[in-house]
Amino acid sequence: MAQPILSVASLSIGYGSKTILENLDFSIPKGRFVGIVGVNGVGKSTLMRTLGGFQSALAGEIRLEDQPLQTILPNPLAKLRSVVLTEQGVTQNLTVQELIALGRYPYTNWWGKLTKVDHEQISKSLERLELIPLKDCKFHELSDGQRQRVWLARALAQQTPVILLDEPTTHLDLYHKIQILKMLQNISHTEEKTILFTTHEINIALQLCDNILLLDPTTSAFGKPTELIAGGHFQRLFPKGMVDFDEKTGAFVIK
């Protein structure tokens, strides 16, 4: 495998003395589209916050571009990874364009003055997420789905090689879930961005992702979807009797 841009070794995550997951090991090179799946409460959001540097690991190591995450200073870190969490603070009176412009903060001087390159990246992000007609709208005027696209556009405007997204398709219907994930998959592959996202849409992730990280309190697994299917990892994801995984179709079915 190519040199990893993000690697995790013997990682344990949680809060204080409470360990949620332990012994996580995986490496991801540039340009991979990676889904993180698991049952509710297994630690998907906790892992995303830990990978983003918002909370400390309990044990193990995270390396970003072969540097220990905890040693990277805030501004260089902001140029390496962008993050969209499920809870985002924002001034409601900002316009869509103004909010996306905040993604350029690692590159502006301390006055926050935008250059031609900054404006080009903002315009590109507006276009990629189909937000140009909404660029002058106030954030509080948007629907939940439109707000989600604004956060994604801000992450793209930050122009980082790694993008971490916690439930990026929340509040979207099935069509728009697929539309957004296919768009992110295309960005990952064409621009060599490593995109990790948590999701409950496992059937969609199986079809679109290069790799999947399946989180489990006992034995987590990382690999290509076909490898995880062949290894029987999805069969033990949910309690038996109501939902089963069909290896032939690669989909969950209701019993």
Summarize the structure.
The chain is 30% helix and 26% strand.
Compile the SSE list and pairings.
Elements: E1 4-15, E2 18-29, E3 33-37, H1 44-51, E4 59-64, E5 67-68, H2 74-78, E6 81-84, H3 96-101, H4 116-128, H5 144-157, E7 162-166, H6 174-190, E8 194-198, H7 202-208, E9 211-214, E10 221-223, H8 225-230, E11 243-246, E12 251-254
Parallel strand pairs: 3-8, 3-9, 6-7, 7-8
Antiparallel strand pairs: 1-2, 1-4, 4-5, 9-10, 11-12
Q: What order do the helices and strands follow?
A: EEEHEEHEHHHEHEHEEHEE
Helix amount: 25-40%
Would you count the extended β strands for me? Answer: 12
Unreliable stretches (pLDDT < 50, length at least 5) are none
Structural write-up:
The protein has 255 residues and is of the alpha/beta class. The protein is built from eight helices and twelve strands. The protein is 30% helix and 26% strand. α6 (174-190) links the parallel β7 and β8 (194-198). α4 (116-128) packs antiparallel against α5.
Keywords:
255 residues; alpha/beta; six-stranded mixed beta sheet; four-stranded antiparallel beta sheet; 8 helices; 12 strands
